[in-house]
């Protein structure tokens, strides 16, 4: 097919948009490894900045990862049963109202939620100073993604049929839940888990209201480094953040085709 | 019935998280917003105060402008990448969707890398015209940042919607003699209008609630989330901070609720 003027016009606009989004990402990787950003690559390469970030902000990276794992734990514990109950309850007004309610935290700015949590629970000194305070904010924000992801999978399979078959063979509720529902929902759980980890690692707006100097997370540290450190430090820190988060995103994107390959053509 | 109670128990943990850390906190903002001597009149006073009104207006104008620009750039890129087949297409899709889950602070940093003192654009204009263009800390920087996090959202939605369209209709138009531009304008775009509307509304709500980007850039234009933050931390003005939080939350919720009802498009969080 001959590619006309219009094709190249669209191609041009799309390329410029790509450059706009991706050029600073490469630039940040470059600066993170340069000895001196002002002089550019001529100044030579170094890992010094990355090491400096680890010594300055290492705690935020560890804490961010721990909070993400804790958030995931809460989301699995609360999200999978909730998704199951929502799918099983069918289409009543109560259920659709409940689903509507559960996504509410995604429709309100994180700053408002953070302020509310702070004013409601901030009086409890132990809770306020612990990382659980931040985890609570992350859980309420991430939970809808897990519920949505698991419910979407459960809606595509004849769940009642499987369960009835198991029940006739004498399987009780818990046995059915752990041996039929959970394995059937596995792709959805995995997809939800990747989303939850990525969201929790990058969450800033709620976290900023809830953090204390002792519970800084990765994005909180990033904001601090952007405001008060050299460009090289900010870049090196951003590079570390990207290294943590990009694999999660890529995996999440590849998941459907990966699953299809693993599970074979039957599904 | 046993089945009922199992379902109720299954919902319990999620409900506890939701009630304790969303509903209760949001409800708590109401009495706190009313706790000043003004009582409920604080809403009237906030909405007639020039500073807050200016901020609300600036935030709305900025968000609307960003949404239009994002729809133009992201919409064109999305349709093009869904339709055209060429080498490097996959890479372009990856590049356009990668920033989707960057936190707002990182988006702010990307703007600094474009338009800060050592920014890419400054380096280019310095080489070309001997003048360093620095825009990161102005309204333009805010616009660029909001555009940065809006484009990936538009691209994804438009690509998904364009993928579901029947290609046959467009091809029929082409066979009947329409040029590629006319086929796009008369056939594809009208069919994509609903998805443009929904993704635009989501961009609008996301931009209005965005905090991290503006926080990093610390510009002179006070968007509403920054005003809320300042009222709370610097001025310890709990009543106003709570009232503004509720107003902003109500606006973004209304926008996203409308989208959900009309098109069924799910919110992806306003966490930028």
Key attributes of the depicted protein:
heterodimer, A: MetI-like fold, 80% helix, B: 272 residues, mainly alpha, MetI-like fold, 12 helices
Give a summary of the structure in a few sentences.
Helices cover 80% and strands 3% of the residues of chain A. Chain A has helices spanning 5-33, 48-88, 93-102, 110-121, 125-129, 131-156, 159-168, 173-202, 205-210, 218-228, 231-263; strands spanning 34-36, 40-45. Chain B has 12 helices and no strands.
The string of secondary-structure elements of chain B, in order, is HHHHHHHHHHHH
Integer-rounded radius of gyration of chain B: 22 Å
CATH superfamily of chain B: MetI-like
Low-pLDDT stretches of chain B are none
User: How many domains comprise the coordinates of chain B?
Assistant: 1
User: What is the CATH topology descriptor of chain B?
Assistant: MetI-like fold
Helix content of chain B: over 70%
Low-confidence regions of chain A: none
Which of globular, elongated, flat, extended, rod-shaped describes the shape of chain B? Answer: globular
- Binned, the helix content of chain A reads over 70%
Oligomer: heterodimer
For the sheet with most strands of chain A, the description reads: 2 strands, antiparallel
Task: Name the structural class of chain A.
Answer: mainly alpha
Number of helices of chain A: 11
CATH architecture of chain B: Orthogonal Bundle
């Amino acid at each position: 097919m001959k590619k006309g003027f219009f094709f190249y016009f669209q191609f041009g606009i799309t390329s410029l948009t790509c450059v706009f989004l991706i050029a600073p990402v490469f630039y940040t990787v470059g600066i993170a490894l340069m000895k001196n950003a002002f002089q550019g690559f001529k100044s030579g390469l170094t890992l010094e900045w990355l090491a400096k970030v680890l010594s300055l902000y290492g705690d935020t990276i560890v804490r961010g990862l721990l909070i993400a794992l804790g958030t995931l734990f809460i989301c699995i514990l609360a999200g999978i049963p909730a998704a199951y109950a929502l799918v099983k309850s069918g289409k009543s007004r109560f259920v659709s109202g409940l689903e509507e309610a559960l996504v509410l935290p995604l429709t309100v700015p994180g700053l408002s939620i953070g302020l509310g949590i702070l004013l409601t629970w901030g009086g409890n000194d132990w809770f306020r100073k612990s990382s659980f305070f931040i985890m609570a904010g992350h859980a309420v924000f991430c939970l809808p993604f897990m519920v949505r992801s698991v419910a979407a999978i459960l809606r595509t399979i004849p769940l009642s049929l499987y369960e009835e078959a198991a029940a006739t063979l004498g399987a009780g509720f818990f046995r059915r839940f752990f041996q039929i529902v959970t394995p059937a929902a596995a792709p959805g759980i995995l997809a939800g888990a990747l989303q939850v980890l990525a969201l929790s690692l990058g969450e800033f707006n709620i976290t900023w209201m809830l953090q204390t100097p002792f519970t800084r997370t990765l994005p909180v540290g990033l904001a601090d480094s952007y405001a008060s450190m050299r460009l090289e430090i900010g870049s090196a820190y951003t590079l570390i953040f990207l290294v943590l988060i990009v694999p999660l995103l890529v995996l999440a994107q590849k998941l459907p085709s990966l699953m299809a390959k693993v599970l074979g053509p039957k599904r | 019935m046993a089945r009922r109670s199992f379902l109720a128990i299954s919902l319990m943990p999620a409900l506890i998280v939701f009630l304790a850390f969303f509903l209760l906190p949001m409800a708590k903002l109401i009495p706190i917003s009313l706790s000043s001597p003004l009582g409920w009149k604080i809403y009237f006073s906030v909405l007639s105060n020039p500073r807050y009104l200016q901020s609300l207006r600036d935030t709305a104008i900025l968000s609307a402008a960003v949404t239009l620009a994002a729809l133009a750039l992201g919409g064109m890129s999305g349709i093009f990448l869904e339709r055209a087949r060429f080498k490097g297409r996959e890479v372009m899709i990856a590049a356009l969707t990668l920033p989707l889950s960057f936190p707002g602070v990182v988006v702010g940093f990307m703007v600094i890398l474009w338009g800060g003192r050592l920014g890419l654009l400054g380096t280019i204009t310095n080489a070309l015209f001997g003048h360093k263009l620095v825009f990161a800390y102005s309204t333009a920087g805010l616009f660029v940042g909001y555009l940065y996090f809006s484009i990936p959202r538009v691209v994804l939605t438009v690509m998904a919607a364009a993928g579901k369209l029947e290609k046959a209709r467009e091809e029929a138009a082409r066979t009947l003699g329409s040029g590629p531009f006319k086929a796009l304008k008369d056939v594809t775009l009208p069919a994509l209008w609903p998805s443009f509307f929904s993704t635009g509304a989501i961009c609008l709500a996301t931009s209005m609630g965005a905090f991290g980007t503006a926080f990093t850039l610390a510009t002179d234009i006070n968007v509403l989330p920054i005003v809320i933050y300042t009222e709370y931390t610097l001025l310890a003005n709990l009543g106003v901070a709570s009232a503004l939080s509720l107003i902003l939350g109500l606006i973004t919720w209304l926008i996203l609720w409308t989208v959900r009802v009309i098109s069924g498009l799910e919110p992806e969080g306003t966490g930028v």
